[in-house]
Design brief:
424 residues; alpha/beta; 6 strands; disordered N terminus; TraB_bac; transmembrane helix; transmembrane; TraB_PrgY-like; TraB/GumN family protein
């Protein structure tokens, strides 16, 4: 989408709302429109409210006009699949999820889904109804459907990597706390959804004050959607493309379309999909802790055999009790609790496997989720108690709490060893 002069790309001049413009041939809409003509292709951006029946009606009216030969929407493959198959989350191979280290992302996605379900139950409107309308109308009219948003898992990972480490716990504890609250979703939160989307509404309290969060959450996605349009609907491929995006993305995505985009947008788009690797310090830290603990044992035995065994016993008990006790909080099976108690002291000295992985594996073996657990998962997690009652979500809790308990146990026992050796 390169631009040589202003005549190559121009926005329609007839305004239909703030910062928007639309041709008179299109039906009137409740949401803002902004149209660009680039080469032989026209792109009409519709700014929608994600909790609004009117936005869904806007989409249907625009597509019914017959003016468009392609539809682009603010969804990624994963969210589109989830919309088409609501039980997709529960059909994942849980053991594979744990083995690939995706338990945290799955738990966050479930929490976001719970937040969405609470809003739907309270407002009577399913968030994303306008996206569903676009999918249904595109299928009915046999129009190409273009998914232009970045994968939600990638966005969450880039948020996690982008914010300073000391803010991560408060960020995600705030996420989990807000979606598991028993209180009704506030009118303010629903209003935020009318300008942004589920991620923005959930993180808005943090994003307003954090450039590190705002960049991957909003600014990068504006750029990403413009790049995807350049890839999927370059000038000349279609005559008129309807782009359905949240009103909060209308200005940013439009500005990127107005400016010259790279001749090969795929390169930059893939860079926005990459997850920044953890720093070398964080990768080396588990091995360093293991070396320090084993060195502490060696020093203890070199001084006195009794002291050495005392340090080993304290390491074992502190790790085992804290990690195994954490699984009790998750109401894990008694065998899971016992297995975690014995595994945590050993896995804490082996960075290649975690106590949470062992705990979740045993829990899955002892309490294999049933069909009804998968089918009711989306509704069960809308209530705090549902996370413990559903075997799928409870296994996620077992994994997370065992991991956290083992991490705390490692630090507590490590300081205890240091104190015993060096004057505690």
């Amino acid at each position: 989408m390169n631009q040589d002069d202003t005549s190559h790309q121009e926005a329609s001049e007839e305004e239909s709302g703030p910062l928007t413009a639309t041709p008179t041939s299109l039906p009137a809409t409740s949401g803002p429109l902004k149209t660009f003509t680039i080469g032989e292709t026209r792109y009409t951006l519709l700014g929608t409210a994600h909790v609004s029946a009117e936005s869904a009606d806007d989409v249907r009216a625009l597509l019914a006009s017959g003016a468009f030969d392609a539809v682009a929407i603010e969804l990624c493959d994963a969210r589109h699949h989830s919309m088409s198959n609501p039980d997709a989350m529960g059909e994942q191979d849980l053991f594979q999820v744990f083995r690939e280290g995706k338990a945290g992302m799955v738990a966050a996605s479930l929490a976001l889904g719970a937040f969405q379900q609470r809003i739907a139950d309270q407002s009577g409107i399913q968030p994303g109804a306008e996206m569903r309308a676009a999918v249904e109308e595109a299928s009915r009219l046999q129009l190409p459907l273009l998914l232009v948003d970045r994968d939600v898992g990638v966005t969450l990972k880039r948020i996690y990597r982008n914010v300073p480490w000391w803010q991560r716990f408060s960020l995600f504890s705030g996420l989990i706390g807000s979606v598991l609250s028993r209180q009704d979703v506030s009118k303010e939160d629903i209003e935020k959804l009318k300008e942004g989307d589920m991620l923005e509404a959930t993180f808005s309290e943090f994003a307003a004050e954090s450039e590190a969060l705002y960049t991957p959450l909003i600014r990068e996605r504006d750029r990403y959607m413009a790049l995807r349009l350049a890839e999927e609907a370059p000038p000349g491929r279609y005559q008129h493309v309807l782009v359905v995006i949240g009103a909060g993305h209308l200005k940013g995505t439009g500005e990127h379309l107005e400016a010259p985009l790279p001749a090969n947008p795929k390169v930059e788009r893939e860079s926005l999909e990459a997850t920044p690797p953890p720093s070398k310090i964080w990768k080396a830290l588990p091995w360093l802790i293991t070396a320090l603990v084993l060195t502490g044992f060696a020093i203890g035995f070199s001084r006195n055999t009794g002291l050495g065994w005392q340090l080993v016993l304290e390491w074992f008990l502190i790790n085992g009790i804290l990690s195994g006790g954490a699984t009790i909080i998750a109401l894990a099976h008694p065998i899971t609790v016992i297995a975690t108690f014995f595994a945590a002291p050993l896995t804490s000295l082996n960075p290649t496997i975690g106590a949470g992985f062992v705990a979740a594996g045993v829990e899955l073996y002892m309490r294999k989720p049933k069909v009804r657990d998968f089918s009711s998962l989306r509704h069960d997690v809308t209530q705090l108690k549902g996370w413990w009652q559903n075997r799928v979500s409870r296994t996620l809790l077992v994994f997370i709490l065992a991991t956290v308990g083992s991490a705390i146990g490692t630090w507590v026992a490590g300081f205890r060893i240091a104190g015993a050796l060096f004057g505690g």
